[in-house]
Amino acid sequence: MSETQFVDAAVRAARLAGAVLQEWADKFTVKHKSHAADLVTEADLAAQNVIYDALHGQFADHGFLGEEGLQHDGGASAYRWVIDPLDGTSNYVHGYPAYAVSIGLEHQDELIAGVIFDPNQDEMFTAAKGQGAALNGKPLQVSDTDQLSKSMLVASFPPGVQRDGPEIARFLNVLPQAQTIHRTGSAALNLAYIAAGRMEGYWSTSLKPWDMAAGVLIVREAGGQVTACNGQPWVLEDADLLVTNGTAIHAELIELLT
Fold first, then answer.
1. What is the H or E stretch that residue 180 is in?
2. Rounded distance, CA 104 to CA 249, Å?
3. Residue 33's domain spans which residues?
4. Domain finish residue from 120, 139, 158
5. Is 211 annotated as ligand-binding?
6. Is the model's pLDDT at 40 over the cut of 90?
7. Which residues, at least 6 apart from 60, have a Cβ–Cβ distance to it below 8 Å?
């Protein structure tokens, strides 16, 4: 099966999951805030289950790794789906419309297909290795901004970040040099937006494989650059990520972040 066919299967699964999330979102009212953790776990699991059912039904021999405890060994298969059914949990709970479904596919440890779906905006970001990236079927290209002073950046902090933590120090190093730095609460959308040319750079040292798998491929296929924050090669199983549009700002950010 071709990478494009894998993408098509992921798109269908992502839309199913998006519909589940939107259905569950109506249950997050003010009076239910005390039960938000339970509700979001149910929503997360329900979305992950529809993704797994849709993809496993087509690719029964593939491996699976998902945020909500999903780990299925594909046996002899060299394929593994890496799934985040709800990226942007805090946003979701608060009714802030910045969350997404993220589905990536590896073959022999190489990313070959990726889909990020924003059900609020009905935006489907897709990529197949060597075939470029797209948003709702239209080609994507990173921005050509090559100055930090003109760049919109985004950063992620880990839960429980402390005021004297290294994440804050890195943030303050970059802050005076950038036009602006955002914290959106969704790693998947951060990556999708860099691919779409809406932002120029993103870094984090607290991500999981399912936060990054689809988005990294989408950024690469849109012409962006992906490394660890110190400039070393990026590894899916490591939490360290620096993504930019691939211009001179990448080297500048490495210097500021290390």
1. strand 180-182
2. 27
3. 3-139
4. 139
5. yes
6. no
7. none
Q: Count the neighbouring beta carbons within 10 Å of the beta carbon of residue 181.
A: 19
Q: Provide the domain count of the chain.
A: 2
pLDDT at 35 over 70: no
84 is in an annotated binding site: yes
Strand partners of residue 197: none
Contacts 24+ apart (CB under 8 A), 158-163: 158/205, 158/206, 159/206
CA angle 258, 166, 142 (to 5 degrees): 55
What type of residue sits at position 116? Answer: I
Task: Tell whether the model's pLDDT for residue 36 goes beyond 80.
Answer: no
pLDDT tens for 41-94 read 788 999 999 999 999 999 999 999 987 777 777 667 899 999 999 999 989 988
3-state class (DSSP) for residue 107: strand
| 174 and 101 both lie in a single domain | no
DSSP 13-26: HHHHHHHHHHHHHT
Q: Assess whether 161 and 115 both reside in one domain.
A: no
Which of these three, 86, 104, 139, is where a domain ends? 139
| 67 assigned ligand-binding residue | yes
Residue whose token pair is 């935006």: 123
Residues 120 and 167 in one domain: no
Instruction: Tell whether 237 is in a known binding site.
Output: no
Specify the CATH number for the domain of residue 226.
Answer: 3.40.190.80
Instruction: Write the CATH number for 31.
Output: 3.30.540.10
38 marked ligand binding residue: no
